[in-house]
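Example 3.2
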Amino acid sequence: MISSSLPLHDGVVWPSGSVAVALTFDVDAEAGWLCEGKQYENRLTTLSEARFGITRGLPRVLSLLERHGLKATFFIPGETAERYPAAAHSIIDGGHELAHHGHAHLRSDHVDEVAQRREIEEALDTFESLGVPRPSGYRSPAWELTPETFALLKEFGFRYDSSCMGDDRPYYEVYGAHTILELPVHWSLDDWPRYGWNIDLGGVLGSPAAMYDEWLGEFESAASEGHGRSLVLTMHPEVIGRGYRFTHLERWIETVQSTHEAWFTTLDGIADHLSSTDPKA
């Protein structure tokens, strides 16, 4: 059995603008490395780079959103919320959406169903203990769903997922008897493939000007095509929060806002709008 895509009804119209734009941030911090193995507990430099996302990246992001009057979706592992409760509350206090991103940031395709269930339950327990609203959205670490993940999302009542790439519009991801609203992502719309680098694997240190051009090109394509297009940017505070990259993100936002063709909203906001127009959403 393989998964499939089920389109939304024709004629999706956004409340304002021709494109629904969601700025999303994966606040992994140290969990993004500790999940790779116990050896990372001793790699203090690597962990300090991850911590930059909390100490500098996240405050910059929240300040940017406030300046431009925007709301965003933040996917945060339970361990990160547990380690940095003030960061989790700063997201909520800013009026943003906090969504589920596992607990220890374990890749779903690397662990069994028992561990996947634990990842969901432990994060939900952490959010509850911190007084954080129960998340309605989910994003799998490394964007990899398995059949077991899919069934768990339905069991725990998540209203949408944002891990798959079957369309550049919201759609329904289908596996067997299960269907979930998918708010799709793509590697080209993620900062990590552009800038992710570590001492073991190397990587890339791309040009933020190229990021600006390519992301603007994607928006312009969506605006010209219409048909319920969405644009979900995925960013990591420790990555996009570096000053010279951050400048180009703000320039991109200012450019898109000036066109008056974008509806900036959270992923939950997109789901809310679709639920009012499509009974399956």
